[in-house]
Amino acid sequence: MGRRSPEVLASAKTIAVVGASRDPRKAGGSVPEGLQRRGFRIIPINPFADELFGERVYRSLADVPEKIDLVDVFRPAADAPEIARQAVAIGAKALWLQEDIRSDEARRIAEEGGLDYIEDECTAVVASLYRIKKVASA
Known about the structure:
By secondary structure, the chain is an alpha/beta fold. The chain has one domain (5-129): NAD(P)-binding Rossmann-like Domain (Rossmann fold), CATH 3.40.50. It is 33% helix and 18% strand. Helix 3 links the parallel strand 5 (70-73) and strand 6.
C-alpha cells in the first residue's frame, strides 16, 4: 500500500500540472497557483499556452528537462492511463488525480511502475488541511 495523500504532497517539491489552465476560475488554474504560493515548484503542462503562473509551459511530461516529484492531473479520467504511462516513463515519484477523477487502469500502471497513487482528492485541500508548505531554501 502506498503513502497517504498528505505524505505524498509533503514530500514533493516539483509538481508537474497536466491540464494546467489559463483560466483562474478553473481548478487547473487556481489550484496550481495556490500550490505555488505555498512554495511548490510548479511546471505547467498544456499544449495551448506558452507561460502560466510565471513559468514556462511544456507540451508534455516528456518535454520537461528536470526531475518531477509529483504529476498532478486536471484532465478527464479517460486521459489518465496515458498520463500514468508518461509519469512512469519520466521517473516521477507519484501520480495524483484531482477530485472527481478516478481510473483503475491509471492506478494499475502507476503502482506497477513504483509510483505512489492518489485519486479523487484535491492537492489544494490536502495542502490546506495539513498545513503543508515548502520553505524557501537559502
